[in-house]
Every structure is written in structure tokens, then in C-alpha cells.
UniProtKB/TrEMBL annotation:
The keyword rRNA processing does not apply. This is 4-diphosphocytidyl-2-C-methyl-D-erythritol kinase. One of its GO terms (molecular function) is ATP binding. It is an enzyme of class 2 (transferase). ATP binds at residues 99-109. It comes from Anabaena sphaerica FACHB-251. Pathway: Isoprenoid biosynthesis; isopentenyl diphosphate biosynthesis via DXP pathway; isopentenyl diphosphate from 1-deoxy-D-xylulose 5-phosphate: step 3/6. Residues 218-293 form the GHMP kinase C-terminal domain. Signal peptide: none annotated.
Amino acid sequence: MRSYSLIAPAKINLYLEIIGDRPDGYHELAMILQSIDLADQIDLHAASTEAIRVYCNHPQVPTDNSNLAYRAAALMAKQFPDAFNNFGGMDITVKKRIPVAAGLAGGSTNAAAVLVGIDLLWNLGLTKSELEELGAQLGSDVPFCVSGGTVIATGRGEQLSPLTSLNNIYIVLAKYHSLEVSTAWAYKTYRQVFGSTYIKNTEDLAARASAVHSGEIVKAILDKDAAEISRKMHNDLEKVVLPAYPQVLQLRELFASQEGVLGTMMSGSGPSVFAIVESKAQAEVVKERIRSAIPDEDLELFVTRTIATGIQILK
Ligand code: C5P
């Protein structure tokens, strides 16, 4: 086939704990990542030239070599030069629905879709773990996005342990369209505020990372208990993002005060905030109440649900 269309779902963080600093400048994390059905569509078309071109319907998304989807294609061309010479370049079209710079892994899931799509386009037959290894070179969340689902992610976020699939938990998601939080800023500020916590002892690090595997939220996930999951959610980055962005704090508090909301949390480095609710009907009610309380056109609101899959091939 000379073209593929792929669905690239967003993620939310049910849990994000910063364990310590790493010598490479990143942070050692313990996270629980969850795919949701809010998704972009990626179309890949083989081109007759060697060029890799990116098109996107969203004006804020760059289409040059800073775009993660472009970088994923360039990485594949570098890793598999024979296939690139044989098959040539491609046009990558990103139909964006996932809010950008939102803490929802929008760019990372686009990159994961390009890796999966080129593997098909060039008949490479790569394994899931080979795709994840390539993904880790592009960004910390890309490996997760390949297969998605409900996953404990440790290390930089690239070491993955899948949990039971958590389907059809309804979520209301909110993001101010024009508000962006830089992930690098959030981690840097956390380090400045809470001090350096460089962990030298790798055994200590492994023990602390593995503690999340036996933690209460994992038990709640294995029990598929949405109310208990909601009570045990946590995100260390809220400690720096909420004080700096009063709009995000306000959204968080507004969600928490709504009837039918089981729990609310910022996703990743923000600024999107999500609420777990009891049902689809309740999600629609909560969404409308938030819309009435904040009648600002800049506020984007979505009803979405948890899903058990990452990148899916449409055709
Ligand atoms: O890996 P990715 O490019 O998505 O990370 C964006 C930024 O977030 C990094 O440049 C780094 O500043 C910060 N980060 C971190 N520790 C992680 C993941 C990301 O400090 N585990």
C-alpha cells in the first residue's frame, strides 16, 4: 500500500510522581498513563520525491523540522536508509483534535503514529519494542503512545509496564485554547522550588520506582474502581503549575465542586485539567455546567473516555 491512515489517541496522567533528578537533566518519574478516545488522525502518503512534508489543519502546529511527526519520519529515514532510498519521501497530514501544548501527549502520539505508519509503508516488520525504542529517541511519552492503554511508566517515562485495560471511564477535559505550559519550564521550576533530589543509589531508585507497582492507585485500577482511582490520583507538577496559572487552579476547583465528579487532576505538565465522572450522561451535565460557569470561548471542553489502545490503523 502507498498510503495509510492512523488514529493517534491522547493520554492523561492518572499519576505523576517526581522521584528525583537524573544526571542527563531529565527527571526520574513514576507515572500511570492512560489513553483516551480524543484523537488526531494521521494520513501518510508515499511521495514521488525524497521530501518529507508535514501538513496540519491547526495554525499553532509547526510543519517544519521542529514538528515531532516530521522528526519521527526523519529518524526512520536515518535508521533505514535502504528503505528510504527505495520508497522515497512522504506527505504527512495531521488532522488535529487534541489540544496542543496541553499535557496530553498530542505531539508524541503523532510521532508514534508516524513510526507505526512508516513501518507499514516500508514493510519493515518492526516489533512493538523496536518501535518503542525508536520512540524514546523522540520524546519521553512517545514509547507509551505506540500501544497505549493503562500503563505504569518509570525512568524518563519510557520504561513501560502495562496494567489491566480500563475501558469506558468517562472524563470531562478542559483546556484554555491560548494557554500553553512548557513541560521543560514545569520540571525546571519544580527543581528550583523543591531543590535537587539527585539519587545516587540505583537500588534506592529502583525500590522507589517499583513502590508505585504495589501502590493504592494500581490496586484501584486492577479493581476497575473509578471512584477509588479518582481518590488516589496525584500529580507532583500541580505544585508548580497551579500557583503560576490561576486559570488552571480555578478550573481544578470548579471541577472539584461539581456533583457527579469523582475526582479531578491536571494532566502531565498541564494546562489541561480533567475530571472523572460516573457516566456519559453525567459527563455531558458537568461539561454544560462548566461552560455556564466560564462562558469564555477560549475554554475548550471535551467529553471523552478511557480506551485500551494506542495507535490504530484505519486503512
Ligand atoms: O522527553 P520530552 O522531550 O517530552 O521532554 C520535554 C522536557 O520535559 C524535557 O526537555 C525536560 O526538560 C522535561 N522532562 C524531564 N524529565 C522527564 C521528562 C521530561 O525533566 N522524565
